[in-house]
Request: fold
Amino acid sequence: MFFWFCFYLVFFCISVAIGYQKGNLIAGVLLGYVLGPVGALLMYMSKDRKHIECPECHQSIHKNSYYCPKCQHKVRLKTAQ
Reply:
């Protein structure tokens, strides 16, 4: 019983960490809690919400960036809302 508790706890922590890195913490917590190792795998395969790809050099940059730090290409304009 203790082994299975530790097994699911490890995969819960992995799922939460991956969810935090990808900008989807709530999904990481829920999938890790409900599905354990399958939830960690689903979070690993999910889309990254914090980063986008530069259209010029294909570097991964933060989604709120105006310029790419590698090639200084203007990534996008922020619209006023």
About this structure: The chain has a mean pLDDT of 84. The helical segments are 2-21, 25-35, 37-45. The chain is about 50% helix and 5% strand. The radius of gyration is 17 Å.
